[in-house]
């Protein structure tokens, strides 16, 4: 090896002059794997992805979920995704940016979804996570509460839970907590159109 | 032999001046080798902590004269029990600077340059300057970064063999309590860090709802304060694990939480440990692992013995156990693998390039997405990205690659047919024909 080091100096200079490019940082393995995940996304109509920093920053993106059934019908919920360079060794960091009355999402936007923490495996991908999030809206679950009050209401009085969810989405107080009216909700009811029509408009 | 003046390092001479039957392939014993190591070999030590202190000392005493050390941390009082180059009055000073100074004071003739910064802050040219890089790190991220940088220098010839002059070897050490590992990474020959990233166990992550509802351990209380309570109280302010005030705050909140649930064991040091993911370090483990790393460094550089092949594990938990495992390279590794060599005319458009991959016998890729140096040239999905990249399809690839005559491009798509279709991500070495300065085009016919 030693001889090599002695001649390396010269060779490198020659190579750099000839190539004129120097060395450029390669994409991290995490970025490449994410690129694969993103290019293979197969999302339901209810989930929309966007890239606030443009097409070349895939490590930070947003998902909007518009549930087409269940308690949260008519709402639109924004999630931010942050993916690290050692993805998929580590799961993406996901936060809910829309304040929501939900047993598994707290008021700070923390999400209790097993595959985002204790059950994450490198074979899972972004698609799985998005489906997992979507599932939280169609089937909120009082057994893994992050919003303790919401979970108790869902367990003991589903009707009241339903009306609390509506209250929150239309803007108002549930208990001591104030929720902003969701803009998606505005045209959902004021337009007076059927759900099908509304989706036709949105998509 | 008798005429050779003895050097300060008599034991080193025994290794470097005499032939033997267990030596490496290109070993040329003699005083010239010993002097060349002093004069030409530059070693970078990454990390000046538990392993880094040991490594610097070991390498300096092994005849290396030109060392650099890089570390972004300052000395803390809890380091002093094992990071033996540091004294109480050094607390608060940069580790790299103090470590370099102390070793230079003790070992005459050694020149150590210190770098008090993040590894990402250095340009790639900085790393290309070293003959070999020795890692004394405590995180996967940092290892992965250095590995990507070192493998980034690697070039392959048209026969997919690594070009010797582009190989940047690494020696990696790691410890966790009484356990440790030492490994060598010769890009293109041994597995790289990314080939074997699955060796690392996933981090333990508690379910958020357990933290929020049913904490059972001290760690649960600490993680509650860190992950949930922090956001609730400091809306928008990000938690900084290196800020002592932030840690203090988490510690007090965790204590309150523990009291509420009748849980014992929340301490300040446990708080630090949980939040910063600190693993208890044992001085003797660091010494053993560093010694193995320093020895491998000497072996790789001098050829005085065959190297470790290629991963040593040490376990001193009960009795003592060491084992060497020869891991194998992932030929398709995106970081160190050769990739598929593709020769192109400069006129070929991205669309044609994508078609070509579908017919390429080594690839047979359909539904191809293309990325180059962090720029997404074409994305099949999602629709929003497809739309943003569609206009690139009719532009020559050469122009999209800003006229670089040869470079790495990554593509992913589907291989196989019918039911057996599976997605895959591939590395391509794209070479444009007829550009000055590209030397391997003539012989690259076998692509």
Rough outline of chain B: globular
Shape of chain A: elongated
Q: Strand fraction band of chain B? A: 15-25%
Return Rg of chain A in Å. 23 Å
- Spatially, the strands of the biggest sheet of chain B line up as 3-2-1-4-5-6-7-8
Share of residues in helices of chain B: 25-40%
Oligomer: heterodimer
Q: Biggest interface between protein chains, with counts per chain?
A: A-B, 65 and 71 residues
Helix/strand-derived class of chain A?
A: alpha+beta
Uncertain spans of chain B, ≥5 residues at pLDDT below 50?
440-447
Tell me the span between the first and last alpha carbons of chain B.
50 Å
Q: How many H/I helical runs of chain A?
A: 7
User: Ends of chain A: how far apart?
Assistant: 62 Å
Query: In sequence order, what are the helices and strands of chain B, one letter per element?
Result: HHEHEHEHEHEEHHHHHEEEHEEHHEE
Radius of gyration over C-alpha positions of chain B, nearest whole angstrom? 26 Å
Mean pLDDT of chain A: 84
**Biggest sheet of chain B, open or closed, and with what strands and sense?**
8 strands, mixed
Catalytic activity (chain B): ATP + [NEDD8 protein] + [E1 NEDD8-activating enzyme]-L-cysteine = AMP + diphosphate + [E1 NEDD8-activating enzyme]-S-[NEDD8 protein]-yl-L-cysteine
GO molecular function, one term (chain B): ATP binding
Keywords (chain B): ATP-binding, Ligase, Nucleotide-binding, Ubl conjugation pathway
GO cellular component, one term (chain B): nucleus
Q: In words, what does this structure look like?
A:
The complex is a heterodimer of chains A (203) and B (447). Chain A is α+β, with helices and mostly antiparallel strands. Chain A is built from seven helices and six strands. Chain A has helices at 2-19, 29-39, 126-138, 148-156, 158-170, 183-190, 195-202, and strands at 47-50, 60-65, 77-82, 93-96, 172-174, 177-179. In chain A, the strands form two sheets. Chain A has a four-stranded antiparallel sheet, covered by helices on one side. In chain A, strands 5-6 form a two-stranded antiparallel ribbon. In chain A, α4 (148-156) packs across α5 (158-170). The longest helix of chain A is centred in the first third of the chain and has 18 residues, at 2-19. Chain B is of the alpha/beta class and 447 residues long. In chain B, 33% of the residues lie in helices and 18% in strands. Chain B has an eight-stranded mixed sheet with strand order 3-2-1-4-5-6-7-8, sandwiched between helices. In chain B, α8 packs across α9 and α9 crosses α10 (268-275). The longest helix of chain B has 20 residues, at 283-302. Chain B is globular. Chain B: Residues 342-433 form the E2 binding domain. Chain B: Catalytic subunit of the dimeric E1 enzyme, which activates NEDD8. Chain B: Its EC number is 6.2.1.64. Chain B: Keywords: ATP-binding, Ligase, Nucleotide-binding, Ubl conjugation pathway.
